[in-house]
Amino acid sequence: MPTHQVVVVGAGFAGLVAARELQTAGIEVEIYEARDRIGGRAWTQERMGHLLELGATWVHWMQPFIWTEITRYGQGIYPSPDSDRAYWITGGEVHEGTEAELDAILSRPQGKIFEDSREFFPNPHEPLRVLDQDYDGPADLPRRFRAADRGGVLDVLRHGEYSQEEIDLCDAYWSAGYNGYTATGSPLMAKHWASLSDHRLSLLDEQTLRFKLTNGMKGIYEAIAADLICPIHLDTPVRKVGHGGDGVRLTLDGGETVEADAVIVTAPIGALRQIEFSPGLSEACRTVVDQGLNCTGFKIWIKIRGHHSLIAYAPTGNPIALIRSEYFLDDDTTILVGFGPDHTRIDLQDSEAVQEVIRRWRPDLTVLDCDGHDWVADRWSGQTWATPRSGQFTDGWHHFRETGTRLHFAGADIAKGWNGVVVDGAIETGITAARRVLAELRD
């Protein structure tokens, strides 16, 4: 019986896991990665005197796929620190309190944003279940579900019942969460995140911003790569993917061609314009690629003088929406992590510009250094973590899950579960895409 060959495009979590799954089943695999490293949008590197995550960071035991990998490779986790003081900007003024007081103000409007999450997502890992033809729930639920995909995530708060302070805090929170502007982010994503967190804000915060890997994300992606016997070709972009019902033909950057029985493309949606598909992607897929997702923001690491335990929020109009203390170093400095909705609003290596932003919360803080990676400007990602625009939750990511040929897609962007800020969805799709290929090759 001839050995089947499958090509994987991308050596992030989805690509590495897909290759491992195929390899275990006896399939010959080769991975082609455009970057000079593995990991994709997970990238652990020494910066500013500390091991930092330039991309994906937080994990949790309620994220089933990453927790399996943590267990498989014997990795440990530890918590991010609580904050002693909280600062938030509303109406142009800075308010100060405890983190608990900040959370108390957020609680009521976030409950409104999460409204209907139980009804909309009875099974959070089947996010479009209520749109299935055989769903036997309330007759008007599909209409309400589609309607909830329109507008912006804060629209439900703009009816006079909620104060400007509540709206501004939610604006800052979701500017960081969507890593893009709240006015254009699908409200369904926030409700889906709530459903993946037992509909509790405290658990959502814990899953997305609380526990980190002791050895960093590289402790997992390097361990997966070490289990592979297949070649991983770095610095090797794939320029063209020809695909049909019985095989695929890839053209590499240098003009070389590779033929295989199937291909799994794990590039982010924001990078798919770098690849020519023949035949072209469906109109629905092309529309999503042309529109881009809502994740136009950034993540930044900031080193300040002294030890300061704080969290701070600022609404749209401020370059950085959220900062929080993450590491207290022995040289009497603190490293903060920050997020904002627009990567064009700040230079991630410009300490003076970041200093001006930090002074809006705390004029006494001195910025010593800052760093990060601009994922949106990076041609091989074209975005940060996947968050949908208005209308894309119900008419977007799922179009990439079936092509009708030997072309398959994987990656956190098209996951059914955690398709956003954590790597769980990437692992999910690496497994499911590989299993679809195996079933296809066995037919």
Question: Brief overview, please?
Answer:
The chain is an alpha/beta fold and 443 residues long. The chain contains 12 helices and 21 strands. The longest helix is centred in the last third of the chain and has 19 residues.
Structural features, described:
By secondary structure, this protein is an alpha/beta fold. The chain has a domain of 172 residues: 3-Layer(bba) Sandwich (FAD/NAD(P)-binding domain), CATH 3.50.50. It has twelve helices and 21 strands. Strands 8-7-17-18-19-16-20 form a seven-stranded mixed sheet. The protein has a five-stranded parallel sheet with strand order 10-2-1-14-21, covered by helices on one side. A four-stranded mixed sheet has the order 13-12-11-15, with no helix packed on it.
Q: What share of residues are in beta strands?
A: 15-25%
At CATH's second level, what is the architecture of the domain at 5-42 and 216-292 and 386-442? 3-Layer(bba) Sandwich
N-end to C-end Cα span: 14 Å
Structure annotation, total helices: 12
Number of strands: 21
Low-confidence stretches: none
Radius of gyration: 22 Å
Shape verdict? globular
**Name of the CATH class of the domain at 5-42 and 216-292 and 386-442:** Alpha Beta
What brief labels describe this structure?
alpha/beta; 443 residues; 28% helix; 7-stranded mixed beta sheet; 12 helices; 5-stranded parallel beta sheet; 22% strand; 21 strands; FAD/NAD(P)-binding domain; globular
Explain the layout of strands and helices.
Layout: E1 5-9, H1 13-24, E2 28-32, E3 44-47, E4 50-53, E5 58-59, H2 64-72, E6 77-79, E7 85-90, E8 93-97, H3 99-113, H4 117-120, H5 141-147, H6 164-177, H7 187-195, H8 201-209, E9 211-213, H9 218-226, E10 232-233, E11 238-243, E12 248-252, E13 257-260, E14 262-265, E15 276-278, H10 283-291, E16 298-305, E17 310-313, E18 322-329, E19 333-340, H11 351-358, E20 367-371, E21 407-409, H12 424-442
Parallel strand pairs: 1-2, 1-14, 2-10, 7-17, 11-15, 14-21
Antiparallel strand pairs: 3-4, 5-9, 6-9, 7-8, 11-12, 12-13, 16-19, 16-20, 17-18, 18-19
Helix pairs in contact: 1-12, 2-12, 3-6
